[in-house]
């Protein structure tokens, strides 16, 4: 009598280990080094999969697994749609010398039916392929990079001079979620440089005006708006969910608040500032590069700093610095190139020069130094009513 598939499967199931979906859920939470392999086809993966899983279809398993999981002693959890393909995959992995392999009984179907978390990856639809074709042609970006951008979340502190060009270009580039924090109303004096806002926006909250523009630029982008003044009570909650923060505040109080919260949450910050014809930019990666406080341990005394009403800025200057911040943001998100980490870039519009200086962490920095003590509540509030940015 010939052997049936049923016979083979029951034989395999006796030789492998299986785990319930709840055991897998617990294991992935407690064992950070366990590797989740999804052995379904790519089309099934695209419909949704377990968070943190690696897509390795059954047909390619033996060919590719040693590259995907080089250490044969790593704990490996395999799953498919219902638990059959993963059982066979687990058997193959054992034969290849993997010592700690488990197949998830019931598969993705059982996982989902029990309300356990799953993610649906961003897809390159026909319209996205057309819209982002110039990105797809760059090897450093490509489809993977493009999908990464679509899944990324960037928070813009201020929808003003710097936030405008950064926001418009990040939206056009297809960064999936943009957060905007701004409590101001659009004023006529903003229109000389804040290109998120149009003449018809005067009198509107900046976050609403910005949302309208960004939707026209790219309806694929989710815009979350926060019409609040950033302070110690809300900064951590707002910032927590984002991958990169674009900081272009016009005052030291907000700059310190954003910096200290970013250090606490270990969020990279694309920093920029502008004044008259001069701009500067840097990228702060907490504990890898200096932070804003390493560079500016003390705020300029109010009597020396130009007051908000008096400070002027060339209308095109924020375009240049804001786009440097947007460029840095994309590089950090895609992990490409050399961001301005540990470097301060100075731009002089009149001389048309860019110079960059190495900057170092301050061991005594009150935010990121050895004896740092961050107290968000202690940062004095900013009192100026008119913002330049
Ligand atoms: Zn620091």
Task: Give a verbal description of the structure.
The protein is of the alpha/beta class and 389 residues long. It has helices at 5-15, 21-30, 42-46, 61-68, 84-95, 107-113, 126-131, 133-136, 142-151, 163-172, 206-217, 235-239, 252-265, 292-295, 317-334, and strands at residues 17-19, 35-38, 54-55, 76-79, 101-104, 153-157, 177-181, 222-226, 244-247, 269-275, 278-284, 343-348, 353-358. The chain has 15 helices and 13 strands. The chain is elongated and about 95 Å long. 35% of the residues lie in helices and 16% in strands. The N and C termini lie far apart (82 Å). Residues 385-389 have low confidence and may be disordered. An 8-stranded mixed β-sheet has the order 8-7-6-9-10-11-12-13, sandwiched between helices. Helix 1 packs across helix 5 (84-95), helix 10 (163-172) packs parallel to helix 11 (206-217) and helix 10 crosses helix 15 (317-334). The structure holds zinc ion (ZN). Zinc ion binds at residues 290-291, 293-294, 361-362, 365, 367-368.
């Amino acid at each position: 009598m010939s052997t049936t598939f049923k016979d083979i499967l029951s034989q395999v199931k006796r030789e492998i280990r299986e785990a319930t979906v709840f055991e897998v859920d617990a294991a992935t939470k407690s064992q950070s080094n366990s590797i989740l392999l999804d052995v379904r086809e790519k089309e099934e993966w695209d419909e949704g999969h377990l968070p943190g899983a690696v897509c390795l279809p059954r047909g390619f398993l033996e060919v590719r697994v040693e590259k995907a999981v080089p250490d044969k002693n790593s704990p490996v959890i395999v799953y498919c749609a219902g638990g059959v393909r993963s059982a066979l995959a687990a058997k193959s992995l054992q034969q290849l010398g993997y010592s700690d392999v488990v197949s998830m009984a019931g598969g993705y179907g059982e996982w989902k039916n029990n309300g356990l978390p799953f993610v649906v990856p961003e897809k390159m639809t026909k319209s996205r392929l057309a819209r982002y074709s110039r990105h797809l042609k760059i090897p450093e970006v490509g489809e993977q990079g493009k999908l990464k951008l679509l899944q990324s979340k960037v928070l813009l502190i201020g929808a003003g001079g710097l936030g405008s060009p950064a926001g418009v270009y990040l939206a056009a580039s297809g960064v999936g979620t943009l957060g905007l924090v701004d409590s101001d109303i659009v004023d006529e004096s903003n229109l000389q440089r804040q290109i998120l806002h149009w003449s018809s926006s005067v009198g509107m909250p900046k976050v609403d005006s910005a949302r309208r523009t960004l939707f026209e630029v790219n309806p694929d982008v989710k815009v979350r708006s926060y019409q609040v003044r950033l302070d110690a009570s809300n900064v951590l909650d707002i910032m927590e969910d984002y991958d990169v923060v674009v900081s272009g505040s016009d005052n030291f109080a907000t700059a310190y608040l954003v910096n200290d919260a970013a250090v606490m949450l270990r969020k990279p910050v694309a920093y920029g500032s502008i004044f008259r014809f001069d701009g500067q930019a840097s990228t702060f990666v907490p504990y890898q590069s200096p932070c804003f406080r390493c560079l500016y341990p003390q705020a300029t005394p109010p009597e020396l700093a130009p007051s908000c009403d008096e400070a002027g800025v060339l209308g095109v200057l924020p375009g240049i610095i804001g786009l440097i911040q947007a460029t840095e943001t994309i590089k950090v998100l895609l992990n490409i190139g050399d961001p301005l980490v540990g470097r301060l870039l100075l731009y002089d519009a009149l001389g048309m020069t860019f110079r960059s200086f190495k900057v170092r962490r301050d061991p005594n920095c009150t935010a990121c130094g050895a004896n740092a003590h961050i107290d968000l509540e202690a940062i004095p509030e900013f009192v100026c009513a008119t913002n330049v940015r």
